[in-house]
Design goal:
This protein has about 200 residues and is of the alpha/beta class. The chain has three helices and eleven strands. The two termini are about 20 Å apart. Pfam families: Glyoxalase.
Amino acid sequence: MSASSRALHYVLKVGDLKKNIEFFRDKLAMRVLRHEVFDEGCEAACNGPYDNKWSKTMIGYGPEDDHFVLELTYNYSVGSYKLGNDLQYLKISLKPDLFDKVLSTTNEQVSSGESRNFSLKSPDGYRFLIETGRGQSKNDVTEVCLSCTNLNRSKQYWTELLKMTPAEEDQSSRESSSNETVLSYSSNSSNTEQQPRLRL
């Protein structure tokens, strides 16, 4: 991979596109960036093992060129999915004013410390950790946390094949331990602020 490698987006399969767009737009204050509809299944299984009409909606806090965004994959013939245990959460870091606006749309309790945070679940059950802190200058998805059954093999996959590197933990992150690792493309990029972390 080149020195400008970066993570582009994370795919979420959704069973009700309308409810999910309302959640991301009206609760999390994201905006729809583009929407595409396809009459047949994707040869690369982009929409899963379904040979039917489907769509993808890119949604986020800014243009795909310089933001990590979400892709909502919707199969018109599938009303719901069984939630797996691979994705633990997606972390979203917001500037204080937008954090307060998003918080006002919920009844969630805020945890205080070096950063203020709370969690929300999407209509399909995906968990989002919303945070803000002093000096937060950008609204973006900043971390993807995945479960794995073999940490060493998973780390080998992400570092050797996909060329991610160990990330420096900031003060708002929990301390690293032998049971987890945090990776990113930051050290390979000239624009480290825009690089989300992967926590395994």
